Amino acid sequence: MLAISxxxxxxxxxxxxxxxxxxxxxxxxxxxxRDYPGASNARRITFEYVMLKGVNDSAKEARELxxxxxxxxxxxxxxxxxxxxxxLRMLDWETIERFSDIVFNAGYASxxxxxxxxDILAACGQLKSETEKLRARARLAVE
Length: 143
Fold this sequence. Notes:
The chain has a single domain (about 5-115), classed as Aldolase class I (TIM Barrel, Alpha-Beta Barrel). The protein has helices spanning about 10-15, 25-35, 60-70, 95-105, 125-140; strands spanning about 5, 45-50, 75-80, 110-115. Helix content is about 40%, strand content about 15%. Helix 3 (about 60-70) packs parallel to helix 4. Helix 3 links the parallel strand 2 (about 45-50) and strand 3. By secondary structure, the protein is α/β, with parallel strands linked by helices. It has a four-stranded parallel sheet with strand order 1-2-3-4, with helices on one face.
């Protein structure tokens, strides 16, 4: 099964969130997905979309996501709330449901994955952020 980390519907934002986008922008990526050889064997692509509060979580982005995926053999679009560096505040459930409903009503499965590991700073981006803080403290102590 093929899974694509999408996370954005515009190249300028995806360049920041997924640096590989600079080499393979959305237009090229989605054409490659449309041409995916596994699609002829009834294999579908799963798209991953980490929702960042105030960054890529609007109804407008949900509608653009549906438009972008038209003609792509997509199986589902999995949503995940993030506590990464850009999303220090959690999304409210109403925003998540609204986004997911738009995608679901367009005919795509749209499960929302439950974030795990927050309690031990191991959720998406947390462990790295905490490690960077520790390194910064160590540098300051040496100075």
